Amino acid sequence: MKMLGKELSGYDINEIIDSLLKYMDRFKNGVLVPLSGGVDSSVLALLAYKKFKDKSRAVTFDSQLTPRYLLEASKKVAKYIGIKHIIVKSNEFAIKEFTRNPINRCYICKKYRFKVLEEILLREKLDAILDGTTFSDLSVYRPGLKAIEEMKEYVKTPYIDLKISKDITRKLASYFKIPTYNYPPDSCLATRVMYNEELTPEKLKKIDIAEDYIRNLIGLKPIRVRLHGNLVRIEVPLDSFTDILKHKDLIRLKFHELGFNYITLDLEGFRSGSFDIYVKK
Q: How far apart are CA 89 and CA 193, in angstroms?
């Protein structure tokens, strides 16, 4: 866990780190960090370990909602940090309302997971759950924020409270040489399915395989395979269109093998939360 010793352009890196560590002063008995393997939670886990050592925990959900490469990334990050890593098997599909895939699906899932995390928190005799939602997330559709508010006795949001945005957490991750600092932003596989279309483990597994296949062809870039019935819509950055078209025959064959009848490339390119664009907040 070695810092690079250089300043971030436009930011006082030491001031940002100190503000986050000072934020944790109130939690005398240590903290728990939900670790997805992404940049935001990885930085929090690293700082929690720096602050509390053996009184810190990272918890990752091994779920059918999680892209497999991110589960492996969380293990890699936890090992790099040295933090005790708890992996919890979860089954969100046991929640009937969740499988209906309503527009507040994220709230239903977050509430379920926070309840599981609360049990671990109390068992481990720690003080707080440090959630990695950033200040930037307040400007987009995030129904899961309601679950944070309802669980605020235990769930704390340092990035929101300190107004730390996603671009800063990414620079912090690079500064600390976190192994996944250059990973593109990602989210749970349920976000690939159009709202009100039933969620099933089989659908998400196919999507995960499809995205991983493209990732192996074009590299570690933002990739989404969005499902609309038996049609899939591939989202990649505009500058990756050439790569997709170069491998179009391989992709077509693989996707047909997975059972996708119609395969399209979204001309607008990658857009985080593209199913949320027309949702009334």
A: 22
How many whole angstroms separate alpha carbon 61 and alpha carbon 110? 11
Secondary structure element (H or E) that encloses residue 222, with its range:
none
Over the stretch 35-45, which tens digit does the pLDDT of each residue have?
A: 999 999 999 99
Contacts for 256 with CB less than 8 Å, ≥ 6 apart: 263
| Cα–Cα distances in angstroms (integers) from residue 265 to residues 134, 136, 220, in the given order | 30, 28, 18
What residues have CB less than 8 Å from 235, skipping those under 6 apart? 222, 223, 224, 225, 226, 266, 268, 269, 270, 271, 274
Among candidate residues 276, 278, 13, the one with its CA nearest the CA of residue 137: 276
- In sequence order, which residues have a C-beta less than 8 Å from that of residue 250 and are 6 or more positions away? 217
Decide the pairing of beta strands 31-34 and 128-130: parallel
pTM of this structure: 0.90
pLDDT at 278: 63
Q: How many CB atoms lie within 10 A of CB 261?
A: 10
For the chain, give the mean pLDDT.
Answer: 93
Task: Output the CATH code of domain 189-276.
Answer: 3.30.70.2210
Answer CATH for 13-175 from 3.40.50.2300, 3.10.180.10, 3.40.50.620, 3.10.150.10:
3.40.50.620
Q: CATH 3.40.50.620 residue ranges in the chain?
A: 13-175
224 HSE (CA, 13 A, CB side):
27
Please give the structure tokens belonging to residue 247.
Answer: 């491998």
3-state secondary structure 51-86: HHHHHEEEEEEECCCCCHHHHHHHHHHHHHHCCEEE
Confidence (pLDDT) at 279: 64
